[in-house]
Amino acid sequence: MHLLSRLFDLATGRPLPDEAGGSASRAQLIVAALLALGVFAAAWGFAAGSQSLGLAMSNLYKVPMVVILSAVLTLPAGMLAWKLSEAPCRGRNILQAFVGGCFGGTLILAVLSPVVAVYYQSSAWAAPYLAIGSTFVAIAVGTAVFLRASVRAVDGKNGWRMAIPVSTFVVLQIALLAQLVSIASPILPERTVFADGVEAVAPDLPEPLLPHTGLTEAR
Predict the structure, then answer these.
(1) Residue 20's pLDDT is what?
(2) Nearest partner of 64 among 35, 29, 28, 22, judged by Cα
(3) Nearest to 109 by CA among 40, 181, 156, 155
(4) To which H or E segment does residue 101 belong?
(5) How far apart are alpha carbons 105 and 11 in whole angstroms?
(6) Which residue has the higher pLDDT, 180 or 86?
(7) What's the CA gap between 119 and 50, in Å, rounded?
(8) Surface-to-core class of residue 155, CB atoms within 10 Å of its CB (0-12 exposed, 13-18 middle, 19+ buried)
(9) Which residues contact 64 (CB under 8 A, 6 or more apart)?
(10) Cα separation of 38 and 126, whole Å?
(11) Fewest Cβ atoms closer than 10 Å to its Cβ: which of 25, 171, 193, 218?
């Protein structure tokens, strides 16, 4: 129960009190949050694919993979931005805030997954809009939690310096999410614009040249 209480504190962006165990205790909390958010993402994935048993079962690993990989791949650039910007907080605090935002976002997905499942069993028109809408809500909530926890971590001291690392974390993770979703597709029974990744955002841009091959000219 104590761990569960601390996880909910993490999801609301509250500063965690120093406890016995120090770094080991915080590491345990972060690992528990990562495991929990994987379970939350899997629950939403199963609900979103519930029209087809095969799709629902594959979503049990694809959706957590997308969420966790996007978070892990965001960390190096985000932590470098924190270091170079000389943000007035400890690295463990911004890491904790980031994991808390991811946890809070996937918690929203888990809460909405029963609604998504019901609509996929009863409304072919509304279900995809609800599923996609729930992901946008989750991203918005996760970003808000991350931002609130980051602001609280600096106690109002030179808080403007947090803009660079926070923006780096948020923008890069959203970009990674969009592309990882295209790699893992299909996730929803319907084909959506997100299945094509970045190409769907800018379909009319010229393709990059392919030097030394002649492939561009042949095409």
Answers:
(1) 41
(2) 35
(3) 40
(4) helix 91-122
(5) 8
(6) 180
(7) 10
(8) exposed
(9) 37, 38, 39, 41, 42, 45
(10) 26
(11) 218
Identity of the amino acid at 24:
A
Number of Cβ atoms within 10 Å of the Cβ of 84: 11
Contact 134/116 with Cβ under 8 angstroms? yes
Q: How far is CA 113 from CA 64, 85, 130, in A?
A: 14, 38, 10
pLDDT number for residue 128: 93
- Of the candidates 22, 68, 8, which has an alpha carbon nearest to the alpha carbon of residue 42? 68
The structure tokens 């923006």 sit at: 167
The token duo for 198 is: 């970045």
The b-or-e profile of 34-48 (16+ CB within 10 A means b, else e) is: bebbbebbbbbbbbb
Please state, in angstroms and rounded to a whole number, the distance separating the CA atoms of residues 99 and 75.
10
What CA–CA distance (Å, rounded) separates 205 from 60?
35
**pLDDT beyond 70 at 210:** no
DSSP assignment letter at 21: T
- First-residue to last-residue Cα distance in the chain: 62
| Of 219, 209, 14, 190, nearest in space to 116 by CA | 190
In whole angstroms, what is the distance from residue 185 CA to residue 192 CA?
A: 10
Tokens (6 digits) for 63: 């959706």
pLDDT in tens, 57-105: 999 999 999 999 999 999 999 999 998 988 778 888 889 899 999 999 9
